[in-house]
Design a protein that fits this description.
This protein is α+β, with helices and mostly antiparallel strands. It has nine helices and 19 strands. The strands form six sheets. The protein has a six-stranded mixed β-sheet with strand order 4-3-2-1-5-6. A hairpin with a 2-residue loop joins strand 10 and strand 11. It is elongated and about 70 Å long. The termini are far apart.
Length: 356
């Protein structure tokens, strides 16, 4: 167990006026125990209380005995796992992981009428939000490798290739650089597909004059990277160049607004204002960014509704975009880390207009 992280979660429980919580999300379990556990349909739950006491409930099939530094309470498929868990809980409220299957929660409520489940993931989410020096270094390295794989992919783009082929290129280059796997399925868009922010990479063919969006990431030392670059094949129209410059300016404005004490909603506004002032506001149709770390999407989000305040050690994306339906789209995304006095951009891949 990572004692300092457990202590931070216990402190967060006290701040939330919760005496106990159950943690089950694989990334959160890894964060606290140092072990990745994939439970499938079986139950796994790390009990933690406001004093920092922990117990891990897990099926014997997970083979954790002797492999994990935690008090381990095992069950097998012949036993009622929820009943075993229920017997060890205090009366009153209990924080439940937002990803814990509802059938476990319902059974727990039936077994213990004296407890009241509440969403309790923030006790770990808030801890994971603040990266330590080693985590930040791994995120720098992950982003640097993603820079390299992306630029190698861009150098191999050519008319006649498919989106799927371009995605496979990035994955191959990332593997050569030591990545364990993509942090998400590569999102590659050509031409009009670039107007769909979450387009499903497919068989469409790259043509002269197309915009190309590469939204890609990899995992290095368990930490995710995520970056987007937009380039143009053969030539770019005046409007494509104008939109690209606007999105780059919005990206720069968002990153410039990052500093300790800044509200994340104000960072969103700084990027969005550039695009709105140019008359393209209705075509920027998503939030400016999201937290990232052990998972590609973590708390908090960089949006108009975010209540989070930037603090040193936080890492998130700045990814404004303009999407013109049926025509083309542009997104430029970088990861940033909040420092003691400002912002560190984790990506170094060029942002200058590229026409291949």
């Amino acid at each position: 167990m990572h004692a300092s992280r457990v202590a931070r979660v216990a402190e967060n429980l006290r701040r939330m006026n919760l005496k106990q919580a159950l943690i089950s999300a694989p990334a959160s379990l890894f964060y606290l125990t140092g072990k990745w556990i994939a439970p499938g349909e079986r139950m796994v739950a790390l009990y933690i209380n406001d004093q920092g006491d922990t117990r891990l409930y897990a099926n014997r099939l997970f083979a954790l005995r002797g492999n994990i530094d935690a008090e381990l309470i095992e069950y097998d498929d012949t036993q009622d796992c929820v009943r075993i868990l229920a017997d060890g809980l205090q009366s009153g409220p209990i924080g439940i992981d937002k990803l814990w299957p509802s059938h476990f929660t319902i059974r727990l409520m039936e077994a213990r009428g004296d407890i009241r489940p509440v969403v309790g993931s923030r006790c770990v989410d808030d801890a994971r939000m603040h990266k330590d020096a080693q985590e930040l270094q791994w995120m720098r390295e992950s982003s640097h490798k993603n820079d390299q794989a992306t630029m190698q992919t861009i150098a191999r783009l050519h008319t006649g290739m498919s989106e799927n082929e371009a995605a496979a290129l990035h994955t191959g280059f990332a593997n050569q650089l030591g990545s364990s796997k993509p942090s998400f399925e590569p999102l590659v868009c050509f031409g009009p597909n670039c107007a769909e922010p979450h387009h499903d990479t497919g068989a469409d063919i790259l043509k002269d004059g197309n915009s190309v969006i590469l939204d890609v990431g990899l995992i290095w030392q368990d930490y995710c990277s995520d970056m987007t670059r937009t380039v143009f094949m053969g030539h770019a129209s005046d409007e494509q160049k104008r939109v690209y410059d606007l999105v780059c300016a919005a990206n720069a404005a968002g990153r410039a607004a990052v500093r300790p004490g800044a509200a994340l909603r104000d960072i969103d506004h700084a990027a969005r204002k550039v695009i709105e002032d140019a008359g393209y506001g209705e075509y920027f149709i998503h939030r400016t960014g999201h937290g990232i770390g052990l998972e590609v999407h973590e708390f908090p989000d960089v949006s108009a509704s975010s209540e989070a305040i930037a603090e040193p050690g936080m890492t998130f994306s700045i990814e404004p975009g303009i999407y013109l339906p049926g025509r083309f789209g542009v997104r430029v995304e970088d990861l940033v880390a909040v420092t003691e006095d400002g912002c560190e951009t984790l990506n170094a891949a060029p942002r200058e207009l590229m026409i291949l």
